[in-house]
Design brief:
Elements (H helix, E strand, L loop, with lengths): L2 E7 L6 H14 L4 E4 L27 H6 L4 E8 L7 H4 L6 E9 L3 E6 L2 E6 L15 H6 L3 H4 L8 H8 L7 E4 L12 H7 L4 H5 L6 H10 L3 E4 L6 E6 L6 H14 L10 H10 L10 E3 L13 H4 L20 H7 L13 E6 L10 E7 L12 E3 L1 H12 L1 H6 L7 H9 L26 H12 L5
Helix pairs in contact: 6-14, 9-10
């Protein structure tokens, strides 16, 4: 099976030139197919964007992105995709809710997305989790402009919302890579926590309380079971391997979703500004691991020895997997399962039994901020031999369902949504034996200066996929 070489970058913080220089150097040695940037991209087009980004004034700088936005001849060294984090120019990215070109060879994935790149299926979720904002509607762009309330809302615009999550939770086909800015909350217990705590000792209380990261990302990881889950946000390298015992049924998902929202208190790790983070890191520099900026990914197993953490051990089974109350006796019928996984069933025959989680640092000297991973490609998918990137058919169907029922979904709390019923309803009228015409899902190639026409890009997407459901 063919493999893609993918460069994975942690937080960007506007350092595009340094990242591209390193990718270009590595690409000259051995071809890199794709670069993924995991948030805090900071797509500042001008100083006017500063009032929509959550960065203290004394740390604000335009960064490198503006060069690529203004000059359409200036391009990334390899195809580049990125997601949003919690330090973003929201005045820019809110114009591209479904994604779009931010520059030549640089594509933003929007609030959430699933795409195909050369036989690899990539899911994404921008922003970070704050439980009080999940069910709230994100402020409207035109209102923010009209009433000049960007600064008032600057710290909540990047919070993940229900409408970002629904299309992802309705996914029932294999995902190869899943991208998020903040970590899934459970992954920390599957890696080398002791080494992590030597580098980030102030994580200890949150780890013990099971409050480090997003519980919704964790639920999505267990539900989607991707080959890789890639994150950033916490400014450190961390790897973990999560074993899956079975494909999640609908009842498992609904019960666990209610559990994580009910039992996980909201946390604030003080990472909302680089000032706070770097101040703490400087105080514990003697315990900091010696790290290189760039690492070539190898296949060596990582240590999963968690025996020294007695408090953690008491909450897990002998395999080190976190037990979630309410998941012991699933009652989903075989008929229900057939409905859930009917679409494109060939894509679900070989379930992934392990997810590799990888988080990387921000672009700084002596930090682990970029790695190369190799990912198996699906040679049967039309994107494999194509130079085009494709929208994902299942995700588009989910967006269409969301658009058609958005008022009903808006009125219901996220933890009461029934995915089984929604997927069943979405599937009504679909012919699962009908071959997908993937030519309808090709993302248009980059056109000169298209990055400066954000509204036009969004209008094209909505006209193509969402107007049918008005």
């Amino acid at each position: 099976m063919s493999k893609l070489r993918i460069a994975v970058q942690g937080c960007c913080h506007g350092e595009l030139n340094a990242i591209f220089n390193e990718v270009n150097r590595l690409n000259n040695k051995e071809k890199i197919d794709l670069l993924i940037i995991l948030g805090d991209f900071q797509s500042l087009r001008s100083r006017d964007d500063f009032n929509s980004i959550s960065i203290p004034p004394k740390y604000q700088k335009l960064g490198d992105f503006r060069q690529y936005y203004i000059d359409s001849n200036k391009r990334a060294p390899v195809p580049t995709i990125f997601i949003g984090g919690n330090h973003e120019s929201m005045k820019h990215l809110m114009l591209l809710p479904y994604g779009g070109y931010a520059a030549n060879e640089i594509y933003y994935l929007g609030y959430s997305n699933v795409i195909w790149f050369k036989g690899v299926r990539i899911g994404s979720l921008s922003g970070i989790y704050k439980k009080w904002d999940v069910d709230r509607v994100r402020p409207n762009y035109s209102d923010l402009e009209r009433f000049n309330t960007w600064q008032k809302n600057v710290r909540n615009l990047y919070h993940v919302r229900k409408h970002d999550l629904v299309p992802l939770f309705m996914i029932r086909q294999n995902v190869d890579l899943m991208l998020s800015h903040d970590w899934p909350s459970g992954v920390v217990y599957y890696g080398d926590m002791q080494r992590l705590l030597k580098f980030k000792p102030f994580f200890k209380n949150d780890i013990q309380a099971k409050e480090l990261g997003s519980p919704l990302n964790w639920q999505l990881l267990k539900d989607l079971q991707p080959k890789w889950w890639l994150s950033a946000h916490l400014h450190c390298r961390y790897e973990a391997r999560i074993r899956h015992t079975k494909r999640k049924t609908q009842e498992d998902t609904n019960v666990e979703k209610r559990t994580v929202l009910k039992n996980n208190a909201e946390i604030d790790l003080g990472l909302s500004s680089d000032e706070d983070t770097d101040a703490i890191e400087n105080k514990q520099s003697t315990g900091e691991m010696k790290q290189k900026g760039v690492i070539q990914k190898n296949s060596a197993e990582i240590s999963l020895d968690l025996s020294s953490d007695e408090e953690h051990a008491s909450t897990t089974n002998t395999l080190g997997h976190i037990q979630v109350p309410g998941n012991e006796n699933p009652t989903t019928t075989e008929e229900d399962k057939e409905i859930l996984y009917a679409e494109n069933s060939d894509h679900n025959k070989d379930r992934i039994d392990e997810t590799v989680f990888l988080s990387l640092d921000k672009c700084l000297p002596r930090r682990k901020w970029l790695e190369i991973i190799e990912v198996d490609a699906n040679e049967k998918h039309p994107s494999y031999k194509s130079d085009n990137v494709y929208w994902d058919c299942e995700f588009i169907r989910n967006l269409q369902y969301l658009e058609k029922h958005k008022e009903k979904i808006r009125e219901r709390p996220f933890n009461t949504l029934n995915w089984h019923e929604m997927i069943k309803e979405r599937s009504i009228g679909l012919n699962n034996d009908e071959e997908i015409d993937w030519s309808n899902f090709i993302i248009p190639r980059y056109e000169f200066d298209i990055q400066k026409k954000e509204v036009e890009q969004t209008r094209f997407f909505k006209d193509k996929f969402l107007r049918l459901h008005k």
